[in-house]
Design goal:
The strands form four sheets. Strands 3, 6, 7, 8, 10, 13 and 14 form a seven-stranded mixed β-sheet that branches. The chain has a three-stranded antiparallel β-sheet with strand order 9-11-12, with no helix packed on it. The protein has a domain at 198-409: Rossmann fold. By secondary structure, the protein is α/β, with parallel strands linked by helices. It has helices at 25-28, 66-93, 112-125, 163-175, 221-224, 246-257, 286-299, 317-327, 354-367, 386-398, 411-440; strands at 198-202, 205-209, 211-217, 229-230, 235-236, 264-270, 274-276, 282-283, 314-315, 331-336, 341-343, 349-351, 373-380, 403-407. It is 36% helix and 14% strand. Helix 6 (246-257) runs antiparallel to helix 7, helix 8 (317-327) packs parallel to helix 9 and helix 9 (354-367) packs parallel to helix 10 (386-398). It is built from eleven helices and 14 strands.
C-alpha cells in the first residue's frame, strides 16, 4: 500500500508567468529532510501571515527604542554617581564656613529676697495718692457768716498702710526676729539710696531713706567734759533738760517726729556695751514715735550702757557697729566724741584702732548685699584730736556717708571753769608756799 506524502502547510507557489522555473532539487544538491515544525506555530491552511512576522528562515529584528532606553539609563546613573562623588569630596576636603557667634544677652536677675522687697516697694508706691484738702470751705453763694479755717491735717498719717505689715512689726518685736544678710558681697556701701522715703536731717546732715538708725554715744566723756557729770564721784551734776547733752536728745526727737509712717527706724546707745531700743526696726507710727521720745528723754543718759555679757567694757564703737549691722538699715547717724577705748585685762584703757572698725564694715560687705550708709558726727566736748577725727572720717568714707564736726554747747563754758579752778589751785599753792617761807623766817 502506497503511503501518500503529506502536503506542506505552506505550499510554494509556482513560477510566475515569464520567469524561468526554479531548479530542481537534484540540480541544487541532495535533498535535505524537512525541518520539523512545532505544533504551536502550525497554522491552519489558507491562514494569512501577520504583517509584522518575519519570513521563514530569518531572525526577528530588535525592537525599536531599546537601545535609547539603555543609553538614557546609563547616563542617568552616571550623573547620580558624579553628584554623589562631588558631595563626598566637598564634605571631606572643603571646610564648612564657621557659624557666626552671637554672645548671649546679659540677664539681670535679682536674688529672691531683693526681688520680693522690690515687689513690695512697688506695691506700696502704687497705692492711692495722698488726699488733698483745702484749708477753707468755698461756696458760690454769699454767706453772712464767715467760716473759720479748717484745722491742719497731717497728710502723712493718712497714707494707705497694709495692716498685716503693722502686725508683723509687733510680732517681730515680741519674738525678736533675727537679721539676715543677702548676696555674695558687692563692696562697701550700699549707700546709694533709692531716692524715696523720708527726708531727714541730723545736725545738718541731710539724707533720704526708708530705714534709719540714730546712734548716740553715752560714755562718761560725753557728759563730764561739758559739766553734766563728775567723773570723780561718778554722779550727775545736772539732769534732764538742764544738761548740755539735752541738745542731742532734742535733735534725735525732732528727726523721729518728722518720719513718715512708711519709714522704719531704730535707736542705739553705747558705751561699755551697745543696746538697741527695739530688737528690730519699727515703723514710724504715732505710737512708736511717742515710745521713742520717752526712751530718749529717760533712758539715754550717762552710765545707761554698762558692760554686759562678760565682754570687756570701755567706749566700744565696735560693739555699736556690730549692732547696727544686725539691724541693717539703709542709713545711720553716728554721734560720738571720738574716744574709742577698750578695757585691759589688768586694768586701764587702750584705744581701739580705726582699722578694727573699718574691718568690721569690710567683712560685712563681703557677706551681704549692702551695708548701712553711716554719717558720722564728731561731737567736740574737748580738744579736737586728729586720730579721732580721722577714724570717724574713715567710717563715713567707707560707707559713702558724710562727716561733720559739732561743738558741744557746754564744752567752752566747762573749759573756762576748769581753767578758773586751775588758777585757783595755783593761787592756793602760792599762798601755801608764802606761809611756809614766813614760818621759816
Amino acid at each position: 500500500m502506497n503511503k501518500t506524502e503529506p502536503k506542506s502547510p505552506n505550499p510554494r507557489p509556482g513560477p510566475k508567468p515569464g520567469q524561468p522555473p526554479p531548479p530542481s532539487r537534484a540540480a541544487v544538491g541532495p535533498a535535505r529532510p524537512p525541518m520539523p515544525v512545532p505544533a504551536a506555530v502550525v497554522r491552519p491552511p489558507n491562514t494569512p501571515r501577520p504583517a509584522s512576522a518575519a519570513p521563514a528562515g530569518q531572525e526577528t529584528p530588535p525592537e525599536k527604542g531599546s537601545m535609547g532606553t539603555l543609553a538614557f539609563s546609563l547616563i542617568l546613573h552616571g550623573v547620580i554617581v558624579a553628584v554623589a562623588i562631588l558631595f563626598v569630596v566637598r564634605e571631606i576636603f572643603i571646610p564648612a564656613a564657621p557659624e557666626a557667634f552671637t554672645p548671649p544677652e546679659k540677664r539681670v536677675q535679682l536674688p529672691a529676697k531683693l526681688r520680693e522687697q522690690a515687689l513690695n516697694n512697688a506695691k506700696h508706691d502704687a497705692a492711692a495718692p495722698r488726699p488733698t484738702f483745702s484749708q477753707r470751705l468755698a461756696s458760690t453763694a454769699p454767706g453772712p457768716v464767715a467760716v473759720p479755717a479748717m484745722p491742719d491735717v497731717n497728710l502723712k498719717q493718712m497714707l494707705p498702710l497694709d495692716p498685716s505689715e503693722l502686725v508683723s512689726d509687733q510680732i517681730s518685736g515680741m519674738i525678736g526676729a533675727s537679721g539676715q544678710g543677702l548676696g555674695a558681697g558687692r563692696g562697701l556701701g550700699g549707700g546709694g539710696g533709692t531716692g524715696k522715703g523720708s527726708g531727714v536731717a541730723f545736725f545738718d546732715i541731710r539724707d533720704t531713706a526708708k530705714s534709719l538708725v540714730i546712734m548716740i554715744d553715752v560714755s562718761q566723756s560725753m557728759f563730764s567734759r561739758t559739766g553734766d557729770y563728775d567723773s570723780g564721784s561718778r554722779k550727775l551734776l545736772r539732769e534732764g533738760k538742764d544738761q548740755s547733752f539735752h541738745l542731742i536728745r532734742q535733735e534725735a526727737i525732732r528727726v523721729i517726729a518728722g518720719l513718715g509712717p512708711d519709714t522704719r527706724f531704730g535707736i542705739i546707745r553705747w558705751s561699755g556695751s551697745a543696746r538697741s531700743w527695739r530688737p528690730e526696726l519699727v515703723r514710724a507710727t504715732d505710737d512708736n514715735k511717742a515710745a521713742a521720745r520717752l526712751h530718749i528723754e529717760t533712758e539715754i543718759d550717762a552710765n545707761t550702757a554698762p558692760p554686759t555679757g562678760g565682754r570687756p567694757g570701755g567706749t566700744r564703737h565696735d560693739y555699736a557697729i556690730e549692732e547696727l549691722l544686725r539691724l541693717n538699715p539703709e542709713t545711720a547717724f553716728m554721734l560720738t566724741d571720738g574716744n574709742a577705748t577698750a578695757t585691759r585685762p589688768g586694768g586701764g584703757m587702750s584705744p581701739i584702732p580705726a582699722k578694727t572698725l573699718t574691718d568690721l564694715l569690710e567683712n560685712a560687705a563681703e557677706e551681704r548685699e549692702t551695708i548701712p550708709r553711716i554719717h558720722t558726727i564728731y561731737y567736740l566736748t574737748g580738744a579736737d584730736k586728729k586720730e579721732e577725727e580721722d577714724m570717724l572720717r574713715d567710717i563715713a568714707r567707707k560707707t559713702k556717708g558724710r562727716f561733720r564736726k559739732v561743738e558741744a554747747p557746754g564744752a567752752a563754758a566747762a573749759k573756762k571753769e576748769k581753767e578758773k579752778d586751775k588758777d585757783k589751785d595755783r593761787d592756793k599753792d602760792r599762798d601755801k608756799d608764802r606761809d611756809k617761807d614766813k614760818d621759816k623766817r
